[in-house]
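Sample entry (144 residues):
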Amino acid sequence: MNAQPAFTARQSRIDASVRRALIAAARAVRRNAHAPYSRFRVGAAVWDESDRVHTGCNVENASYGLTVCAERNAIAAAIGAGAKHIRAIAVASPTRPPATPCGACRQVLAEFGDAHTLVVLAPPTGTATDRRLGALLPESFGLR
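Predicted structure, serialized as tokens:
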């Protein structure tokens, strides 16, 4: 994974209140998704190295290839706000079990996170599941 030298795995630990806040933010922004074609609304909230939360939702397009996933929109919002590293991401989907990020989103997460980046998968209600990015995307591609 593309680990940032100034950021260690220990710093990617997340306390319960931050985890709950990320899940709540992802579930809330999910309502704003533009998903007229698939009806599959997804929300995401990322936690950056400065303890800020950034959100995004999926935005579909009639030209399906132009659709942008919630995870990438949340990461773009974080980077646009000056973030350099993603500590954790919560992804809220309409399914049980909750959906995992697609391959493209996993690779973008690897660009700004590391193998220890927490990925919280949240169904519409109830208990969320935790994964580490390294388990979802082993041996990711990187140029660093």
